[in-house]
Amino acid sequence: MDRQEDAVLFQKIKLGDEKSFELLFRRYYGHLCLYAVRFTQNNPEAEEIVQDLFAKIWEKKEQLTISTSVKNYLFRSVKNHCLNFLQHSQIKNQYSQKVCSEANDLKESEDTNYIEIDMLRKIEESIQALPEKRRKIFRLSRQEGLKYREIAEKLDISIKTVETQMGLAIKTLREKLKDFLPAF
């Protein structure tokens, strides 16, 4: 496939042609996944990154402008998404280590255990006090680890609704748990 054919395909995609989108997806998906694995060292994550890229392309097809070749754009985008993923993973790992370290420090003191139990009870009560939909969104995000996009699909709501409800849930929980914030 040459650069000009890709450009024609992309122009059709901008007009909403699903067959052209599917053709572009099938043409590059495997190659992009292999490329992404070089960065992530993780097949499922690589596939998710490529799938997310294609989803974003479809969602923003009307606004998207590609000044280089479509192939270069796809590979550069996958590289950028992978680098963002790696950076995010590193931050998550650092945060997890910090939380584990702090949790170990907390377990050293018997008094802390009582505070922790009280805090967990208060957290659960505060979560239970949230409106049903907000509580469900919060639990899917924080307890099941779903991404906002996955929650939106699962509950058949917009990502913006998920973001708004999560923001309200966190704000409410902060207010109700303000006495415990120094313990965090």
Automatic annotation (TrEMBL):
<dbReference type="InterPro" id="IPR014327">
    <property type="entry name" value="RNA_pol_sigma70_bacteroid"/>
</dbReference>
<dbReference type="GO" id="GO:0003677">
    <property type="term" value="F:DNA binding"/>
</dbReference>
<dbReference type="InterPro" id="IPR036388">
    <property type="entry name" value="WH-like_DNA-bd_sf"/>
</dbReference>
<keyword id="KW-0804">Transcription</keyword>
<dbReference type="InterPro" id="IPR014284">
    <property type="entry name" value="RNA_pol_sigma-70_dom"/>
</dbReference>
<comment type="similarity">
    <text>Belongs to the sigma-70 factor family. ECF subfamily.</text>
</comment>
<dbReference type="InterPro" id="IPR013325">
    <property type="entry name" value="RNA_pol_sigma_r2"/>
</dbReference>
<dbReference type="InterPro" id="IPR039425">
    <property type="entry name" value="RNA_pol_sigma-70-like"/>
</dbReference>
<feature type="domain" description="RNA polymerase sigma-70 region 2">
    <location>
        <begin position="24"/>
        <end position="87"/>
    </location>
</feature>
<dbReference type="Pfam" id="PF08281">
    <property type="entry name" value="Sigma70_r4_2"/>
</dbReference>
<protein>
    <submittedName>
        <fullName>RNA polymerase sigma-70 factor</fullName>
    </submittedName>
</protein>
<dbReference type="InterPro" id="IPR013324">
    <property type="entry name" value="RNA_pol_sigma_r3/r4-like"/>
</dbReference>
<keyword id="KW-0805">Transcription regulation</keyword>
<feature type="domain" description="RNA polymerase sigma factor 70 region 4 type 2">
    <location>
        <begin position="121"/>
        <end position="173"/>
    </location>
</feature>
<dbReference type="GO" id="GO:0016987">
    <property type="term" value="F:sigma factor activity"/>
</dbReference>
<dbReference type="GO" id="GO:0006352">
    <property type="term" value="P:DNA-templated transcription initiation"/>
</dbReference>
<dbReference type="Pfam" id="PF04542">
    <property type="entry name" value="Sigma70_r2"/>
</dbReference>
<dbReference type="InterPro" id="IPR007627">
    <property type="entry name" value="RNA_pol_sigma70_r2"/>
</dbReference>
<keyword id="KW-0731">Sigma factor</keyword>
<dbReference type="InterPro" id="IPR013249">
    <property type="entry name" value="RNA_pol_sigma70_r4_t2"/>
</dbReference>
